[in-house]
Amino acid sequence: MPASPEVATTLEAVRSAYRSALGALRDCPGPELTGWHRDHLGRRSALAALRSRVGALPAEDRAAAGRAVRQAADDLATALADRREQTAAGDPAPADRVRLDPTHIPDTPPPGGRHPVSLILDEAAAHFAALGFVFRDAPQIEDEAHCFDLLGVPADHPTRSPAHTFYAEGAAVLRSHTTASVLRVLRTEPAGPASRFVVAGPCHRNNVPNARFVHQFHQLEAVAAGPSVRMSDIKGLATGFVDAVLGDGFDPRLRFRRFPYVSPGLAVDVECAPCGAEGCGLCQGSGRLEIMSGGLLAAGVLRAAGWPEDLPVAALAISLERLLAVRHGLGDIRHFLRNDLRLLAQAR
Amino acid sequence: MRVPLSWLNEFLSKPVTVREADDLLGTAGMAITRVDVPGWRSPRIVAGRLGEERDGTTFAALPAPEPVRLPAGARPAPGSMVAVALPGARLYAPGSAGTAHGLDIVPAPARDGDPVGLVCTPAGLGLGPSGTAIVLPPATAPGTPVAAALDPAPASVADDILHLTVPTELADCDGLWGLAGEIAQRDRDRHRVTPHGEPGPHGDGDTIRLSVDGCGWTVCAAILPGGAAERMPDLLRDRLRLTGLDDDDPVTGAVRVAAYEFGVRLVTVELSAAGPVDVTVGGDQAVRTGPAVRWPAELAVHVAARTPENTAPPRLLVLAAARTEVSADGDRCDRAVHRVAALLAPGRPPVRATTEGPAAPRHEILVDVADTGSRLGLPLSTDECARLLTGRGLTVRAAGPNRLVVAIPAHRTDLRTRPDLIAEIVRLTGYRALPGTVPGDPVPPPRDDRSARSRAARDAAVAHGFQEVVTPMVIDADAPVRTSALHLHRGGSRTGRIVRRSLLPGLAAVAAAQTGRRGRHLDLVETGAVVLPEAGDHRERPQLAVVRALPEGSGPDAAETALHQVGAAVRSAARAAGVPVLTVRAAERALYRPGTAVEFVAAGRCAGWMGLLAGSALGVPGTWTFAAAEVDLVALLADPAVHRRLVAPPAQRTIETDVNLLVPDEVPAAELAGLLRAGPAALRRAGIVDVYRDARLPDGHRRVTVRLEVASDWRPVTRQEAAAACDEAISAMTELGVRRWTPPQEQSTQDNNRNGVIR
């Protein structure tokens, strides 16, 4: 049954008085709370006047109107008690607070930051460190023996041409892959029952730079040696690393691939995220990008290192720029060499 | 090897997609290095709204207006929606010579104002022969790929071109037939089909007596009737063009098609006489041959007619050769010659003969199946192992429990040792079959102090607000700091290159390349290797470089502040790397502006330099100034890390006093600080807190505020004792021309300063 117009007017007046009193209470400093009580809950307050009007309403409406007035008075009394507690605890009155807009968060990057390549290098090194791999320093300036000859790369292999590799005076070569450094580390380490290490850093190839190849890129190579090492360990390391660094959404594909220094060898591809596997300059239309390669080191390499030829030594090399490109959806790895601060600032 | 996907799919009962082909062939050890998607399906061909011509250049909204090139023919009206191929897009170029394998590649603009894209024709998109611009539905949104704008998708040429690398040792995978075989082996649903070259019935006519001397080769010979050859179907010609094998001569074209499809070697010989012939392959004498594809030199062809020469129309002898183990995979040689016959003389089966040469010697490898399984981490039975190996031309026999002897065909030069055979087994099983494990028996990692300290130093500089960058180690030889650099061989490049001997030119180039930072300084840090050949070898040395780049118009104050910031960052870096004390001393060094350079000293060794450099000294155009520090991490980290010693605060009351000193400009702060530290025993701490220059100061002087703390371990010091200690410390500097500075108006406060603040 609809309420009579008088009751509706009274109820609306109660709500209005309640809102007005509550608004005043929010901005009321502590010392003035007594005055607020007098003005809004006292005998001359609006609520008191409304309470007196309830008696004039029709009998059937009096109960509802009376309840509304009583409820409003009770709520205001509770709010007053809360406010008194706040002021007693030292909370300043709202009017005394500094006016601020917490929704405005300036979009200003911090002044300094790490380069994404060094960030991912540390992340990868930490991932492998948790599995017992220790970081080993290795030079970037190598000799042909470590870079090619001792790894079984034939003398007429195209990658040995000066059009692909940087040769310097005195038969020095800028390492074109970290496996050269792996060999150097193996030669300095005694062959033990078990050994695990990573080498990492810049590698150099005399390529014409494009979205997929640059003449300086970074690799991290993890090496595990021991009688119990298996080819499946390389798969586990590769898939575990992809899961850890790229997340579960990437399904790495392991592909058979020959390299002179491993047998068997493999390459690990993931879906090219920048183009959504549609084909781009980075994946060169294939929709997949090779981000790792490795295998069990060949007997010739172990012989060159002075290690037992039948000791399984697993190696897995990771291309960090390509990993970054996939992780951040950037379809051109040259960005990581350009050092445009507008890009670097986003990677912090 | 370029493989049009539709052509490969003709050899399979169920077509594969690019992704499936990549998966299945990649698992087999072949790599698809690139996929060209030419024509309308290319994502680089988008819709664009044609605008008015301005200054002789036509623009199209893509959606931003860009200059485009129009094809010859009628110009579409302004406002028309056209297809625009962006740089890198591949367009069909049917029938046109001089294109890259039947495709036109849209070039990138070489100069400002050059067209960004090319308005496409139906011919270029593979939608028909027309050479005028194609017009798309007007409601198409500019920038939408054309493939999405064409609804429904047109039923026209839509081929993907796979760029496939097939290792030479996988001779059985050569040709579409071999590729289809590899796919079928890995996906049993896709049985191979034989649309072409099914070995048909032998034709009637003169016989061929074929003998093969080539060891390990199988040869198939066929005589095709003479007369004009059939013209090759257009589809096949277009496909040949896409593979880069097209030729106007029908015989050459047919031979190339057969060789491409079946992966065999082919050669033709024109026979001038009718009647039976004797063909010897691999002998000493050779006849002049016609079109050939990879015909091996060791298989010289000799043909002898058994009847005297006559006037019969010339006939064509076609010879196909393949290694016997490869040819056995579905009679490839037979199929190939039949394919040539079907193309050149359809409906007329040729006379054929097939002969194997002497068997090539095979070497044997003993395989321990259990050992193979443990090396791979894959449980493997002897039967499974034998099944895998026999499928690819290898022969296997048991040699005891868990042992197999595998006979290797001569063409598998990659299979020489047991590990090679293990690799072949994993190639055949595929890596999907392997479980993913991690190496057992964790090895506790030893400490790796040097790298960790180096990283800590870099991180400390970053924490000071410096942005880390990574610059190339190889730089152009005309870069500055090139004296005595390690030069690289040119290797085809026009300019000489060197290995950097300093990180600074790279950092300067980074600063100069930043746009939109006019008038603001830039803080950069890098850790990297440099090579200093004068050190006697080519070993690289890790360095840390910290740079504040000051733009044009920065005054001396900014330069001094920049040096202070850089120096503070280096000192923090040293501390973080476990070098608690890094002192500086004035030094002169090439490239640095005179009077601005200092040397960092750690444990008595020079560990780097800092100073101001002009941009021109680092090869940077413009008027940049750089406050830069180079730290040699080898020298810095030569000693083990020292944990900072912490000094407990004095238990007794201390007195701290700030004293203003008037210091001649030629007295460096480092010397001042050194003298203060060597002051009286009661002086517990002394440090420079402010440096100030003002016109009110005497010429050639600056004001330096030092904070001195005087204390005793045993009792509170008095003000008089503190003042005496300060006076003693300051008097030690008078020989350098240093004296207290008290401006006249501050005379009244001097006493307060002398009294100090009690802590």
Automatic annotation (TrEMBL), chain A:
Any Pfam family the entry gives: tRNA-synt_2d
Basic and acidic residues composition bias: residue spans: 94-104
Signal peptide (UniProt feature, chain positions): none
Protein name (record): Phenylalanine--tRNA ligase
UniProt keyword list: Aminoacyl-tRNA synthetase, ATP-binding, Ligase, Nucleotide-binding, Protein biosynthesis
InterPro entries attached to this UniProt entry: aa-tRNA-synth_II/BPL/LPL, Phe-tRNA_ligase_II_N, Phenylalanyl-tRNA_Synthase, tRNA-bd_arm
Phenylalanyl-tRNA synthetase domain ranges (all copies): 107-346
The keyword Transport is assigned to this record: no
UniProt-listed SUPFAM superfamilies: Class II aaRS and biotin synthetases, tRNA-binding arm
Organism field: Paractinoplanes ovalisporus
Domain Phenylalanine-tRNA ligase class II N-terminal: residue ranges: 37-88
Annotated Gene3D superfamilies: Bira Bifunctional Protein, Domain 2 (3.30.930.10)
UniProtKB/TrEMBL annotation, chain B:
Comp. bias intervals (Basic and acidic residues): 446-455
Cofactor(s) listed in the protein's UniProt record: Mg(2+)
Cross-referenced InterPro entries: aa-tRNA-synth_II/BPL/LPL, DNA-bd_dom_put_sf, Fdx_antiC-bd, Fdx_antiC-bd_sf, NA-bd_OB-fold, Phe-tRNA-ligase_IIc_bsu, PheRS_beta_core, tRNA_synthase_B5-dom
Domain FDX-ACB: from-to ranges: 650-741
Gene3D superfamilies: 3.30.56.10, Bira Bifunctional Protein, Domain 2, Ferrodoxin-fold anticodon-binding domain, Nucleic acid-binding proteins
Keyword hit for Ligase: yes
EC code(s) of this entry: 6.1.1.20
Domain of life: Bacteria
Ranges of Polar residues composition bias in the record: 744-759
Top enzyme class: ligase
Residue ranges of domain B5 in the record: 360-436
Keywords: Aminoacyl-tRNA synthetase, ATP-binding, Ligase, Magnesium, Metal-binding, Nucleotide-binding, Protein biosynthesis
Stretches for region Disordered: 187-207, 436-455, 739-759
Protein name in the entry: phenylalanine--tRNA ligase
